Each structure stands twice: as C-alpha cells, then as structure tokens.
Amino acid sequence: MPQEQRRHLQSNLVERGRAAARTGIRALFDADPDRFRAFTTALEDLTLDYSKTALSVDDRAALLAFARACRLEEKRDAMFAGERINVTERRSVLHVALRGRISDRYAADGIPVGEDVERVLAAMSDFATRIRNGTLTSSAGHMFTDVVNIGIGGSDLGPAMATLALAPYHDGPRVHFVSNVDGAHIADTLKGLNPSTTLFVVASKTFTTVETMTNAATARRFIVDALGEEAVRDHFCAVSTALDKVREFGIDENRTFGFWDWVGGRYSIWSAIGLPVMIAIGAPHFRSLLAGARSMDLHFRHAPLEENLPVILGLVGWWHRVALGYPSRAVIPYDQRLSRLPAYLQQLDMESNGKNIGLDGNPTATVTGPIVWGEPGTNGQHAFFQLLHQGTDPVPVEFLVAAQSHEPELQEHHDLLIANCLAQSEALVKGRTCEEAREQLLAAGKTPEEAAAIAPHRQFSGDRPSITLCYRKLDPNTLGKLIALYEHRVFVEAQLFGINAFDQWGVELGKELAVGLLPVVRGEAPVERSGVLTRGLARTIARLQ
Ligand code: F6P
Question: What CATH code is assigned to 3-70+303-430+465-499?
Fold first, then answer.
C-alpha cells in the first residue's frame, strides 16, 4: 500500500481514537445495551467479548478497512503458502504446518513438509510412550521418574507454560524446566533428583545458546559423576535443528528430534520442542493440543474478517496501542494453571513486534508492539489492580476465564473466581463518581465533612477497556486454540504496524557484549578492557568477590 494511503487511514483512525476516548465505553452501552451481541465473536466454545472497548460500529468498520488496505488477507495467505515472509532471514514461516494434516499440503518454499512433520511426531510419540510405560529405561534399568527440560526462550516458555496449564492431564513422570544460566536454577532443580531415574531433554533450536549449553554441561556432569560416562547415552535426548551439533555433544541420533528453520523459536511449541509436554500428558492429548491449534488456523484462514478472532483481537490491540496510545496491555488469566501464559506471551509478542524499523527498512510510521505483562487473577487484584482502576495510564486488560473447572468438588472456589473476573471487567468500565462515593460514605455513617474529604479518593473514572476470552474448560484442545489465537494476533498486528514479526536482531548485541566481558569477569583480562559504561560496575563486583 502506498505510504500516503496508509498514513491517511492511520491518522483517520487516530482521530477516531481521540473521539472514542472522549465518548467512553459507558456511553456506548447506554446507546446499545445489547452491545455484547454485536461485539462478540467465537470459534466453537472459545468466545471473545470485546464489547468493553471504546470501539463503535463505525470504528470497527474503519479498522477492518485499514486491515484490508494493509493487504492482511494476502499476507496471511502468503504465510500459509510457505512464502519467505521472514524477509530479513529469508525464511518461510510455517509453524502452522506442525499442527496440520498431510492433506493440508503445507510446503515451505514449494517443498512439501507434511510427511517430515508426521515422521518426527511419530518418533516423539514412540519415545514419549516408551518413557511413560517404562519400556525405555535408565542405564540401570529403572523407570524414569523425572524429566528435566533444559532450554531457554522459545525452547522453554511454551512447554513450561503448557505443562502447567495441562496439569490435570499429567500422568507421566514429573517434568521440570531449567532455563536460567544462573547456577541457582539447575542446582535447586537437581537437588531433589535421583540421577539414576532422571532423563534430560536438551532443547535448543540452534544448539549454541550459551545458557542451554552451560546447563547441559552441568547436567552431563551430574549424570557422569553418579553413573559414569556410558550413562549419558541413556539419560539424554535432544531437540534441535542443528543435528551435527547434537552429535558433537554425544547424544544419540535416535534420541534426537529435529525441526526446521521455518519454525521460529517462539512458535515452536508444536514441534519436537513440545516433547516434555508429550511425555507429561501422553501423545493422544498432545495431538489434541495440535488439533485445537489447527481449528484456529482454519478459522483464521477462512472466517470473514469481521468474525475472525485473531483479526479482531489484532485490530483491538492496534486500536489500543496506536489509536489510543496505550503503551501496555495486561493479560490476566482467571485460571491459575495459565499463570505462565503472560511470560509466554511476553516472548511471543514482544520478541515479535518490539521493532522500530518497518519492512521497507525505514523507521515505522507509528508506535509498535505494546509491553505485555500480567499475573493470574484473583492474585493480581490484591497487587496491581489499584493502578488499573485509579492509575493515571489506562491499561487495556485481557481477561481469560473457564466456565468449568477441573475440580468439581471445589465448585465454591470456581464460582468465586468467575464472579471476581466478571466484577473486575465491569468495575473497570463502570467506575464511581465522586457524588456516588460521597453518598456511600454518608450511608456508612460518616459525617458530611468526612464524606466530602474522602469521596475524591474513592472515585474511579471508569471507561477503562478490557476484552474477555472465555471457554468451557482448559483442556488440550482449548489450549491449542488459545495459543494459536495469540500467535495469529501477533501476525495481524505486525501487518498493521508494517514490520517483520519473525526476526529478533535486537537480542544480539547484548549476547555479543557478554562474550567480550566474560574474560574481564573471570579476572583473565584487565577491567580496562571493558568500556566506560561497564568499568565501574565491573570493578565494584570484582571488589565484592
Ligand atoms: O535470544 C533469543 C532467542 O534466539 C529466542 O528467539 C529463542 O527462543 C531463544 O533465544 C533460544 O534459542 P535456542 O532454541 O536456539 O536455544
């Protein structure tokens, strides 16, 4: 789209955003009390309510027109067709193929990938099943009781989040995750483990990431010291695209599960990176996770834009970020088992859309990806919700809630959970005027003077936006749909920002500097070797060592 047309549509939407902020959300409900109906869309049981945003019917139409002008549908189709849309790395972006069927005929750059995907899935299933039923044992012939995944970023956050989310389906060995290069992480994890019954999964797309390689070397020593060098064969497996490097580490080929360069790290949970999840919940449940994601893919590909969950979620995200200028969004799952979802989405969203250079190589015309943060409800209510209700910066909130829990015997808990979720999204819009606060105080027996003094502190502006995603129950299929929804939402927003969501050059400089600083930290090179920005701290740390 010519830059000029893009700018024109954008500035029109920014104008609309200003007007919408003045109108507010309550006024929209006053004008149409049945607004929920017009501002809800669903795929099967997964329902997205975006009625509590300041979007009018006309604003939504303008956003949809902007999406079409950004050639969203064409770009989506290019991704599904396996074109090299990751232009800076010249790669296809085909994580959707990992949850497709062979009949979906996905191809990366013209080369079919379905059979390769199926082959790796079958190998993973066989391996996971044998670990789970004890036919694949430790070096001393014991059944594995514990599995430790060693990986970081996309090789950790997805499987860690999903393993916790699907705890009710967990009937395999205990699964642990070690990611941080801080030795405390692996030390605390290994402390309770028996080397004779522990299996390590070394997960790294590149098999060069320093954190993972350092932790893997420590894990190797843990096994060798207790069981001898030969035990490494039985106690390690690997997941990577760099099969030669895995071999160098000494991990057997038939215990190595590959994936491909058209799978980005933060989009890799569906690949062999999901192995620890499969070991925890079993292959059939893992297949159900993939099937849920595939339903979302089909929906994203074929549903009209106005009913399309990832499109609507992306448009609402762009509206809040660009048209209304809100710098962050909070993800608040009223679902304790989704407590790692905000961290997972931080990588998915911020590593994808935290960019300031557009696809044309020039600075982007607008702000781009928001800061994503969050914690589960109801815990957040007793921590940071004060700021959400009365702070100076509105923060759009994304609530997630299940209609059914996995603990029918604890229904009272679930009723309270749902009531709190609904109450918070209502309170954010409703607010309370100073006059209402004063009347409440008088009714509670305060003197008129006291009521007048305290009332201003108890008023809430209201009109604060939120969306709510609700679903029947957090099962593997639903989790698959949810993750794929967020993946595609990131894609949609990237098209509206005009950026490449699939590279991450911004993480490189820090890694390079760390390599240069290591000799200084180890005391092998003089502190002067570090630059003026670091010298002072390096000296202070050395003095304290
Ligand atoms: O440093 C960022 C990053 O490259 C992420 O994109 C990736 O998920 C993570 O590091 C881990 O990379 P790998 O799987 O290659 O170890």
Answer: 3.40.50.10490
